[in-house]
Each structure stands twice: as C-alpha cells, then as structure tokens.
Amino acid sequence: MAGVVKEVEAAAQTLGLALQLVPALSPDDFAGAFAAMTKDRAQALIVLPSPMLFGGYQRIVNMAAENRLPAIGAAREFADFGGLLSYGVNLPQLARQTAPYVDKILKGAKPSELPVEQPTKFELVINVRTARELGLTVSREMLLIADDVIE
After folding, report:
1. Do 97 and 136 form a contact (C-beta atoms < 8 A)?
2. Which is the CATH superfamily of the domain at 2-150?
3. Which residues does residue 73 pair with via DSSP β-bridges, in sequence order?
C-alpha cells in the first residue's frame, strides 16, 4: 500500500494538486472520513486498492454521491456501483491467472519455486451516467480509450 500512496503523491505533485490522505481502516471509519473530506472541501475521491474497502464499495459510492464527490476506485465494480470511474486489474482475469498456480501447488510444486507473475491487463471503466449526475463532461478522447463505458 505504501508504494501506491507514494505513486499517488508523486502524481498529485506533478499535477499541482493538493492531496489529503484520509485513512479508513474499517467500514466504521467511512462516516468520519467523509466528514473530514467535506470539512476540507475535497473536490474528488480516490479509493486506493484494499480488500476491506472493496467490500465497502457500494457504501463508499453512495456516500460520495451524497457529498457530490467524483470518486475513482481500483476495480471495475466501483464504477458498476456508480463510481465515476475505475482503473485497475480485471479481478476475474486475475483469478483465472491464479488458477494454474493453485493447480501446480496442489500437484506438489513448491510455491517458492514458481515464477512470480504480475497482472498484465488493466482496465479503465467510465460511468458517464454518474458524470452527468455530477455535472461533468467526459471527453471523447477518454471515452475512446476506455475499456468499457457505463451509460
């Protein structure tokens, strides 16, 4: 997670954006996190990859909508639930990529001897319905590079 935060901080600095990190260690922290964002007049929300946050995507998307915050998540499901967009690995594809490893291990292979593989396919999903609700316009260029567009 520290590597992702470092990359986000570097990108924000390059773009001249002020970044406010608002930790949420459990779903009980969501209300306080949104209160802090509202108090500090956040203009957008990036939900970093986290298994705990993945389970709370629907609630996070709903709270972002209530606060009129454009929200970006790391898995397609975030955009499916109504987030503005998602960019990250395709989780079903990642599971399919993992299955041969499980098979090899079950057949006796030592995990430490298997080569490390990383995801190679990332997908951009844009929810234009959410963009319209927020009064945002998604450029034609963005729509053309998107892997999927939710109307």
Report:
1. no
2. Response regulator (3.40.50.2300)
3. 86
Written as six digits, the tokens of 92 are 């079903």
Mean pLDDT along residues 21-41: 91
Domain ranges of the chain: 2-150
pLDDT one-digit tens code per residue, 2-20? 778 888 889 888 999 888 8
Give the mean model confidence (pLDDT) for residues 16-28.
88
pLDDT tens-digit readout, 36-94: 999 999 999 999 888 888 889 999 999 999 999 999 999 999 999 999 999 998 888 88
Is 114:48 a contact under the CB 8 Å cutoff?
no
61: its two tokens: 């998307």
The DSSP 8-state label assigned to residue 60 in this structure reads H
Question: 107 with 100: CB under 8 angstroms?
Answer: no
- Other CB atoms within a 10 A radius of the CB of residue 143 amount to 11
With beta carbons less than 8 A apart as the criterion, state whether 45 and 72 touch.
yes
Q: How far apart are CA 39 and CA 2, in angstroms?
A: 25
